[in-house]
Structure formats: structure tokens, C-alpha cells
Amino acid sequence: MVLAGKVQAETLIRAPADKFHEMFWKKPHHISNVSPQNIQKCHLHEGDWGSLGSVIVWNFAIDGNTQVAKEIVEAIDEKNKSITFKVIEGDILKEHKSFKILLQAIPKGDFTLVHWTLEYEKLSKDISVPLKELGFLIHLSEHIDDHLVQA
């Protein structure tokens, strides 16, 4: 029985890749202002914004269910506009032994391809593949895109 897996999704946005990446890298605390229906709060628990090893706490809602996730910034690649978060506490770990969120913003001409990857290990075979979480991130990307294009 395989409990570990990976799911991926992409969406094309109009905002520049560097600006989108910067929202998650250096300004994640601004996302609750951009998409308050999805992210109610984001605060720095440890470290500095935009720094490797920083710990960020997110309060968010998926399908109306409020959740909390404490994540460590595990990797930042400014050149490739990617960032990796590892969940270290929170609701998602009630069903998963491990959970990572990888984001990459890839310039594509006048657009940006936002690529999300969720790597996880479920606690049991009865746990669903985290497709709701992946859909949430795609929807959040669209809200951030709207904000960045209007700014």
C-alpha cells in the first residue's frame, strides 16, 4: 500500500513571474489582504520574511473549513522563482505524516505559468489525495494575479 504521493497543477496568470514569486517569498503576510476569503491571517513565527528557515503560520479556509498550518521555508530559488514550504504543525498533519508545498513561477512570454506541487505521505490509505488543497492554491493564485495586475 502506497501512502506517499505527489500531485501537481498549473495555471496561467497575467502577472509577472517575479512579482508573483515575491508575494510568497518576501510578502506572504500581504496575501491575507489580497484574498481574505482564502487566507485570514499570515504571520511570522520565527526568522525574517523572505529568509530560508523562517517559520510562517497561515490561517486559511478550504471549502469553508478554517485551518491552520505552521510551515518552515525549506528552499528558496530566486533564479528559478521557486519556493518550498514544509508543514511542521497544523490541521493537515492530522491526516499526513509529511506535507510539502512547492511553488514555481515560470515566465512564459507576456504570461506566467504558476506550477504547484504537493508532496505528501498520508497516515492511512483512507485519507484522500489532497486535491482540494491543490484547487485551493490554484484559486488563491488567481486572486493574487488579479491583485498584481490591477496594482
Summarize the structure.
The protein is an alpha+beta fold. It has helices spanning 17-25, 31-34, 131-150; strands spanning 4-13, 39-46, 55-62, 65-77, 82-90, 96-108, 111-122. Helix content is 22%, strand content 48%.
**Rg (CA only):** 15 Å
Strand order of the largest sheet: 1-7-6-5-4-3-2
**What best-fitting shape do the alpha-carbon axes yield?**
globular
Contiguous helical run count? 3
Largest sheet: 7 strands, antiparallel
Could you tell me how far the N terminus lies from the C terminus, measured between alpha carbons in angstroms?
48 Å
| Helical coverage, percent range | 10-25%
The overall average pLDDT, rounded, is 96
Low-confidence runs (pLDDT<50, min 5 residues)?
none
Strand percent estimate? over 45%
Would you report the number of β strands? 7
Tell me the structural class. Answer: alpha+beta
Series of secondary-structure elements, N-terminal to C-terminal: EHHEEEEEEH
Description:
With 151 residues, the protein is an alpha+beta fold. Helix content is 22%, strand content 48%. The chain contains three helices and seven strands. The protein has helices spanning 17-25, 31-34, 131-150, and strands spanning 4-13, 39-46, 55-62, 65-77, 82-90, 96-108, 111-122. Strands 1-7-6-5-4-3-2 form a seven-stranded antiparallel beta sheet. The longest helix has 20 residues, at 131-150. It is globular. The model has no long low-confidence stretch (mean pLDDT 96).
Question: Keyphrases for this structure?
Answer:
151 residues; alpha+beta; 7-stranded antiparallel sheet; 3 helices; 48% strand
